[in-house]
């Protein structure tokens, strides 16, 4: 039996380029791994079966659409294993469909867990390629830390980072569909008359001020540089997020943004005590279902 712990992510910068012919958008995506995470346990089984525990277990799909099951099958196929046997249990803490790459995290964790259970010793580079096949955010969950994702987010370059940053995540009722949020981003751009295709929208670049803030461990400077091009789209689809963002800011957060495609909202705090206070204020505000204080960066998927 192998248990793998895997982090959630927040995008401290999510620069979204134009819509490409393949249906994806080119990104300048600065991923940041946080301690709020899932655990995936692989044990011997017949076929690929899934169970899930945790507060949101009831809304996690347990069929072959789950990225953990797809990861197990993809790894088996890569090694020519015709009849893979594994039971995967997901202990879920990452909000479901929340913009924190929880499904992607479980896919990455399942790759690592099955690789160990089946004693395959797959090279890290190969695991990264399989991860990119599973989804744009899966490779980062293997790598962790802080990294720049180019292309659709799967081409990763680790970034230097100093110290620990303290975060609060406000969890919304219900999720948002990532493709729907990207479509809304395109629609808002068309409405503004700027065009949404990759010939109209410049390919985004990482913000030098944001990279410097990470390298220097400067939370105030990072808070000022937080940027998410999907935020207007997420707020357009879920207007109540504006009140959540305001509540965390009024409670003393240094900075606030929607996490990825949302609807989870992320708040950067000065230190662990400030994060705990912001989380308490958000829980009391009535603008979210719950709020978690956590920290990062932390490493990617690894056996415990
Ligand atoms: O790669 P993944 O399966 O996570 O992507 C889900 C959806 O999100 C894609 O089908 C696409 O609609 C959207 N997406 C995008 N551009 C990206 C990543 C995802 O448009 N860079």
From TrEMBL:
<keyword id="KW-0547">Nucleotide-binding</keyword>
<protein>
    <recommendedName>
        <fullName>4-diphosphocytidyl-2-C-methyl-D-erythritol kinase</fullName>
        <ecNumber>2.7.1.148</ecNumber>
    </recommendedName>
</protein>
<dbReference type="InterPro" id="IPR014721">
    <property type="entry name" value="Ribsml_uS5_D2-typ_fold_subgr"/>
</dbReference>
<dbReference type="InterPro" id="IPR020568">
    <property type="entry name" value="Ribosomal_Su5_D2-typ_SF"/>
</dbReference>
<keyword id="KW-0418">Kinase</keyword>
<comment type="function">
    <text>Catalyzes the phosphorylation of the position 2 hydroxy group of 4-diphosphocytidyl-2C-methyl-D-erythritol.</text>
</comment>
<keyword id="KW-0067">ATP-binding</keyword>
<feature type="active site">
    <location>
        <position position="9"/>
    </location>
</feature>
<feature type="domain" description="GHMP kinase C-terminal">
    <location>
        <begin position="210"/>
        <end position="286"/>
    </location>
</feature>
<feature type="binding site">
    <location>
        <begin position="95"/>
        <end position="105"/>
    </location>
    <ligand>
        <name>ATP</name>
    </ligand>
</feature>
<dbReference type="GO" id="GO:0019288">
    <property type="term" value="P:isopentenyl diphosphate biosynthetic process, methylerythritol 4-phosphate pathway"/>
</dbReference>
<keyword id="KW-0808">Transferase</keyword>
<dbReference type="InterPro" id="IPR004424">
    <property type="entry name" value="IspE"/>
</dbReference>
<feature type="domain" description="GHMP kinase N-terminal">
    <location>
        <begin position="66"/>
        <end position="145"/>
    </location>
</feature>
<keyword id="KW-0414">Isoprene biosynthesis</keyword>
<dbReference type="Pfam" id="PF00288">
    <property type="entry name" value="GHMP_kinases_N"/>
</dbReference>
<dbReference type="InterPro" id="IPR006204">
    <property type="entry name" value="GHMP_kinase_N_dom"/>
</dbReference>
<feature type="active site">
    <location>
        <position position="137"/>
    </location>
</feature>
<dbReference type="GO" id="GO:0005524">
    <property type="term" value="F:ATP binding"/>
</dbReference>
<dbReference type="InterPro" id="IPR036554">
    <property type="entry name" value="GHMP_kinase_C_sf"/>
</dbReference>
<dbReference type="Pfam" id="PF08544">
    <property type="entry name" value="GHMP_kinases_C"/>
</dbReference>
<dbReference type="GO" id="GO:0050515">
    <property type="term" value="F:4-(cytidine 5'-diphospho)-2-C-methyl-D-erythritol kinase activity"/>
</dbReference>
<dbReference type="InterPro" id="IPR013750">
    <property type="entry name" value="GHMP_kinase_C_dom"/>
</dbReference>
<dbReference type="GO" id="GO:0016114">
    <property type="term" value="P:terpenoid biosynthetic process"/>
</dbReference>
<comment type="pathway">
    <text>Isoprenoid biosynthesis; isopentenyl diphosphate biosynthesis via DXP pathway; isopentenyl diphosphate from 1-deoxy-D-xylulose 5-phosphate: step 3/6.</text>
</comment>
<comment type="similarity">
    <text>Belongs to the GHMP kinase family. IspE subfamily.</text>
</comment>
């Amino acid at each position: 039996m192998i248990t793998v712990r895997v982090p959630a992510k927040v995008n401290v910068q999510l620069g979204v380029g134009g819509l490409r012919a393949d249906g994806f958008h080119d990104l300048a995506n600065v991923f940041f791994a946080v301690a709020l995470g899932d655990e995936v346990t692989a044990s011997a089984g017949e076929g690929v079966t899934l169970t899930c525990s945790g507060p949101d277990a009831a809304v996690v799909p347990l069929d072959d659409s789950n990225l953990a099951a797809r990861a197990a099958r993809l790894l088996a196929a890569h090694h020519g294993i015709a009849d893979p046997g594994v039971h995967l249990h997901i202990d879920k803490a990452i909000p479901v469909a929340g913009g924190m790459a929880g499904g992607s995290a479980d896919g990455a964790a399942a790759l690592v867990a099955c690789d160990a259970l089946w004693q395959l010793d797959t090279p890290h580079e190969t695991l990264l390629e399989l991860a990119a096949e599973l989804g744009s955010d899966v490779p980062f969950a293997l790598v962790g830390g802080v990294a720049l994702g180019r292309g659709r987010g799967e081409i990763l370059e680790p970034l230097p980072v100093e110290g620990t940053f303290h975060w609060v995540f406000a969890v919304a009722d219900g999720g948002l569909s990532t493709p729907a949020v990207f479509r809304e981003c395109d629609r808002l751009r068309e409405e503004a008359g700027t065009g949404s295709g990759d010939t109209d929208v410049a390919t985004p670049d990482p913000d030098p001020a944001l990279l410097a803030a990470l390298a220097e461990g400067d939370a105030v400077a990072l808070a000022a540089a937080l940027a998410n091009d999907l935020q207007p789209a997420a707020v357009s689809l879920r207007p109540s997020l504006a009140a959540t963002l305001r509540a965390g800011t009024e409670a003393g957060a240094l900075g606030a943004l929607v996490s990825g495609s949302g609807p989870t909202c992320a708040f950067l705090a000065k230190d662990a005590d400030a994060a705990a206070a912001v989380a308490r204020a958000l829980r009391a505000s009535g603008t979210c279902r719950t709020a978690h204080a956590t920290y990062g960066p932390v490493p990617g998927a690894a056996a415990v």
